[in-house]
């Protein structure tokens, strides 16, 4: 089989030329599966004429920010035959992600190098998982023109920006849905709201199916109250403040992935969804259950219930966030409707913490 190799240096540089040629570069007819699995800046173009014709997935996800959710989602998509590429901020993490089979680019939006844009142009879907930075704003949208210009006439069809329910502010315990007027109180939440507006506009300008997902507190394997207790981590000042809330909405990472996949198969122009479970609860309740579950599974492993959490006075009521729309419109059936079933599944699948400790 004839294989042509085009190095990044040989790719046309002018945006106009790039646009004219990139559809051909990205076309499933030309781009091989192996080339996309090769973690390098080299793009291989292969003739289809050989006997071992390769099948090419038509769905290619790019994840800006392969953090906790990004990696979990990437793994699920990979199992379903998607090509997944994305960014992280360090060489060490890039290496780990490449070992898992994801073509990864090191990218720091504060000192941006746009090497990943050629690859992003070839993707059909884009998940944005990079948070805003205090006093700066959205780190990507700071470079909106460069970013947008390079995606015009690209392959992208779908964009989802991961936001947070903190944009709603304190609704004094009331239920809030997506139509509730956001009243962000912290500066970071105000920046988040601006990021939402910016990504919605960018999606609209590029004529993409555009989603904003407002996520509750994210937990799942490796990141939960159980992990915090077992690691004996001290609460940060921000966590202590959040712990005073009577209600915090949460969501298991597997349910975020469900909602993302459901939105991919729905073709709408733009839509905002709260992605949370059914059971907003205080941090103290969640930690009390986590303690109980650990003690049941590994008696003697931990001491008495952590008083630093129990002694926190509730009173920062906040809001209860409604998930009715993801159920009704996206057809999501939550795998973990409550932190109770979520924590239970985490501990059921956890190894004995003493197994690998010296
Ligand atoms: N944690 C929560 O409970 C919660 C709740 C609601 C919403 N959210 C938001 O939902 C999104 C996904 O959450 P997550 O928990 O998966 O986040 P995460 O694990 O912190 O991942 C964030 C990703 O963004 C990258 N990143 C951060 N700053 C960057 C910058 N300046 N330039 C380039 N890349 C940058 C990180 O790089 P590295 O991989 O190299 O670190 C990481 O890949 C985030 O926007 C988060 O703020 C989080």
Summarize the structure.
The chain is built from 14 helices and 13 strands. With 358 residues, the chain is an alpha/beta fold.
The main sheet orders its strands as: 5-4-3-6-7-9-12
- What helical percentage do the residues reach? 25-40%
Poorly predicted regions are 1-20, 29-56
Strand content: 15-25%
Instruction: State the separation between the terminal residues, measured CA to CA.
Output: 53 Å
Query: In CATH's first tier, which class applies?
Result: Alpha Beta
CATH-defined superfamily: NAD(P)-binding Rossmann-like Domain
Biggest sheet record: 7 strands, parallel
Cα radius of gyration in angstroms:
22 Å
The average pLDDT score comes to 83
Number of strands: 13
* CATH architecture term: 3-Layer(aba) Sandwich
- Give the structural class: alpha/beta
Number of distinct helices = 14
Query: How many structurally independent domains?
Result: 1
Describe the structure.
- GO terms for molecular function: isomerase activity.
- Keywords: Isomerase, NAD.
- InterPro entries: NAD(P)-bd_dom_sf.
- The chain is of the alpha/beta class and 358 residues long.
- It has one domain (3-219, 253-279, 322-338): Rossmann fold (3-Layer(aba) Sandwich), CATH 3.40.50.720.
- It is built from 14 helices and 13 strands.
- The strands form 4 sheets. The protein has a 7-stranded parallel β-sheet with strand order 5-4-3-6-7-9-12, sandwiched between helices. The chain has a two-stranded antiparallel sheet with strand order 1-2.
- α3 (68-79) crosses α10 and α11 runs parallel beside α14 (339-348).
- The N and C termini lie far apart (53 Å).
- Residues 1-20 and 29-56 have low confidence and may be disordered.
- Bound molecules: NADP nicotinamide-adenine-dinucleotide phosphate.
- Residues 65-70, 88-90, 93, 107-110, 129-131, 139, 162, 164, 215, 217-218 line the site of NADP nicotinamide-adenine-dinucleotide phosphate (NAP).
- NADP nicotinamide-adenine-dinucleotide phosphate (NAP) binds next to α3, β7 and β10.
């Amino acid at each position: 089989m004839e294989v042509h190799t085009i190095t990044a240096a040989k790719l046309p540089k002018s945006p106009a030329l790039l646009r004219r040629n990139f559809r051909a570069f990205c076309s499933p007819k030309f781009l091989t599966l192996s080339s996309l699995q090769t973690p390098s800046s080299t793009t291989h173009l292969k003739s289809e004429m050989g006997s071992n014709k390769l099948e090419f997935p038509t769905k290619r996800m790019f994840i800006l920010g392969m953090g906790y959710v990004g990696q979990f989602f990437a793994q699920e998509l990979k199992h379903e035959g998607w090509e997944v590429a994305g960014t992280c901020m360090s060489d060490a993490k890039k290496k780990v992600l490449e070992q898992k089979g994801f073509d990864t680019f090191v990218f720091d939006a504060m000192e941006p190098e746009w090497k990943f844009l050629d690859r992003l142009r070839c993707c059909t879907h884009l998940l944005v998982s990079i948070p805003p930075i205090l006093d700066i704003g959205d780190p990507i949208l700071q470079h909106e023109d460069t970013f947008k210009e390079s995606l015009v006439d690209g392959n992208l069809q779908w964009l989802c920006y991961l936001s947070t329910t903190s944009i709603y502010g304190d609704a004094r315990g009331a239920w809030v849905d997506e139509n509730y007027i956001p009243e962000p109180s912290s500066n970071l939440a105000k920046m988040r709201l601006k990021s939402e507006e910016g990504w919605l506009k960018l999606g609209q300008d590029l004529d993409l199916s555009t989603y904003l997902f407002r996520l509750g507190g994210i937990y799942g394997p490796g990141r939960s109250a159980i992990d915090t207790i077992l690691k004996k981590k001290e609460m940060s000042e921000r966590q202590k403040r959040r712990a005073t809330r009577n209600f915090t909405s949460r969501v298991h990472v597997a349910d975020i992935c469900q909602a993302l996949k459901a939105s991919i198969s729905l073709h709408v122009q733009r839509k905002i969804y709260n992605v949370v479970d059914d059971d907003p609860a205080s941090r103290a309740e969640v930690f009390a259950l986590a303690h109980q579950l650990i003690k049941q599974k590994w008696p003697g492993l931990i001491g008495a219930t952590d008083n630093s959490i129990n002694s926190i006075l509730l009173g920062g009521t906040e809001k209860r966030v409604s998930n009715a729309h993801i159920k009704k419109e996206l057809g999501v059936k939550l795998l973990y409707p409550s932190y109770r079933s979520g924590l239970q599944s985490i501990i059921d699948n956890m190894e004995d913490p003493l197994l690998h400790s010296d």
